[in-house]
Amino acid sequence: MKKKQKKMLWRILIAAALMIALHFAAEAFGERLHEPAWFLLYLVPYLTVGWDILLKAGKGIKNRQVFDENFLMAVATIGAIAIALIRQNGDYTEAIAVMLFYQVGELFQSYAVGKSRRNISALMDIRPDYANIEADGELEQVDPDEVEIGTVIVVKPGEKIPIDGVVVEGVSTLDTSALTGESVPREVRPDDEVISGCINLDGLLRLRTTKEFGESTVSKILDMVENATSKKSRSEAFISRFARIYTPAVCLGALALAVLPPLFFLVRGLSPDWGDWIYRALTFLVISCPCALVISIPLSFFAGIGGASREGVLVKGSNYLEALSKAQTVAFDKTGTMTMGVFEVNGIHHSSMDNDQLLELAAHAEIYSTHPIARSIQKAWLEGAVFRDDGEPAEKADAAGRRLDKERVANVKEIGGNGIVAEVDRRQIAAGNTKLMDSLGIAYIDCHHVGTIVHVAVDGAYAGHLLISDVIKPTAKEAIRALRAAGVTKTVMLTGDARKVGEAVAGEIGIDEVRAELLPGDKVAAVEELLAKKPERSVLAFVGDGINDAPVLTRADVGVAMGALGSDAAIEAADVVLMDDDPKKIALAVRIAKKCMRIVYENIWFAIGVKLICLVLGAAGVANMWLAIFADVGVMVLAVLNAIRALFTKNLR
Description:
alpha+beta; Calcium-transporting ATPase, cytoplasmic transduction domain A; Rossmann fold; 4 domains; about 50% helix; about 20% strand; elongated
């Protein structure tokens, strides 16, 4: 608990203790002490707990922003004290209790908001950003903000490129799937430009930065979440507008209640009890205070955003949380969104020898290659991948002791864009695409499966081919099922890949519709068409991760970006960011949004309903200040406690 919250808690406890002590003292010594002694004694706990509210009310009057909850609290409590002082009945506890319970509600609100912010900050701390600078022959990690344009930085294998730049030394392969949407990695050499966010797969790179770091991905995300309240939902904006009109209206109503009935009695020749009607008006003011709505509705959204952030789902504003709760159509990019964007050997077909032997020869032929396709072949053999007679994968064998032996390999010749020819155990091995087979005059067999095909020939004779596919994310199928359970009625895949590939992936994970071979502009057109066809008052969400997805993320009702490896452009364009790239989190985000909106409407109806009943009772003189306390502070505390429920998301996973 922060110092400010601790101080408030102590003020509440001290004021409560003093109020209880004075209550018992009044029963024991009431006859011995007279006004204004009791007034001065009760003023101590009142000011202890309420001095800041009085100060805020005074500042509001000074700044001509009179009608807020601080003003209502100040007028109502000071009025109650004034009536007790005039009547000389020593009953000051009502005024103190009103202020006391109001501050309890404020404490709950402060704690809930603070908890949400801590959840967000803790989430951000797990994503460090740094740049490697070489100094005196050693690498030093520095804050990217300190790196100036033109500085040479070092990017080691496995690291994310922190700043845009140009390669000055080194050759490597970059995982650009997060940026381009393409599953095939890109090789870079000196003088090639690279963009921050790419993963350096192999080889040490030295880059000369061409831009300042500016705002890192992490700081942008943190900033967008902490400032999410600047983008208000329709419900939240309605409450704010409602409070601006409602507050002065009830102040005029209370004034009318205090003045008009007594004047009516005077006109009729009767003697009105001014104190009674003023007391009713003050009770009316306390009941009518809209703080339950003004506090609990934004808090519900902030708690919802905080609860989502703890689950790795970052929402840029409450308006997007409200929109997400109405999502009925979800469109997906394929590569990097529903697939891993990495290669894996998924089959060996038409082999003229033992499958393991063919895989071993191909792995050794590719021994010097750093291309991801070559690495997937090497990895498959080293890990003991087993393929049945029909070429489909089986359980892995014991791979203990397996290693790639360069002594077995000679005369390696890499043919750019085609493949590799090498001698393995004094046998000529050719591994590559159909162009390589055509150039060598070797007849090959086409593959009817979807994926990248590596044909293998041994001593000039065709020996079979390897099927290498992009791996579907383990949770992709479950993600689609979860979305349907969450109320999504239609799922669509928008991909730039071949139709055959897109349909195969969509069929496996259960997506309803596929639109393939799309350029970024075509994706926008497809989303426009889907928006035109979606049900009225429903929402279309698009999920993507690359630069090519940024226009679509912006055009959709709600754009959802993969944040762990997603591009800065996609994250900037998106309204929701998934920090761990798990598509199952999309359904979780929808469920969190629905729960948050359910809590918002519960608070609205509960607060307005209770207040209307109590306002009628207060105007009729049935409700006293204690009922007013419940109608105001009690309702606020219950609404705040209900709003805090949006922080808890374990039951939604």
